[in-house]
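Researcher: I'd like a structural prediction for the single chain below. Treat it as a standalone chain; there are no partners to consider.
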Amino acid sequence: MAVLAVGVSACGNDKSNAIPEQLCGVAITPELTAPLLPDGDDVKTEPQSPRKDEYAQCTVSVGGKAALYIVEYSGQNSFDALEHARDASAFRNPQKAKGVTNAVIADGKFIAVTPCGEGKKSHVLDIDMNMPSSEAMDLRDELERFATSYLPVGKKVIGCEK
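Model: Treating it as a single chain, here is the predicted structure.
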C-alpha cells in the first residue's frame, strides 16, 4: 500500500500520530484517516461483528464517541451505487466517486460496489461518518481518498482478492 506523506499543519496539530495503522482489521494510512476523525488521542476500533469471510462491521471511535462506521460485504449481487444513493435518504448530495467505477461519495457517506474476485458476486464497502452533514460536506475529498485507499486492502482481508 502506498503511503502518503502529509506535512504538519501550521498549527502543529498532527493527530495522525494517535491513529493506529490498522482499523477494522485493515492496514490503513493514518494520514488519510486523520481528517475524518475528531481531535483526541484515544482512537479505537470496535468490531460490531466478528470479521468473517463475507461480512465485517466495525465502529471507529475517538474518546469513546463513534466517529466512523465501516461495513463490508462480499458475495453480494451487484447494483448501481449512484441509483441506490439517489433512492436512499441517508445520502446527501450523492455523486460518482473518482477512481472507482461503481462508487458514490456523499456528505459523510461513501459506498462502492466492486467485483469480488473472479466470480460474479460483488464486494460492498459502506462508510459513514458520524457527524452532521453540514460538517461532513467539507470533508468529501478526504473521505473519498480514505475510502479508495481502504477499498483494495479491505477486499483482500475479506477474501475477495487473493
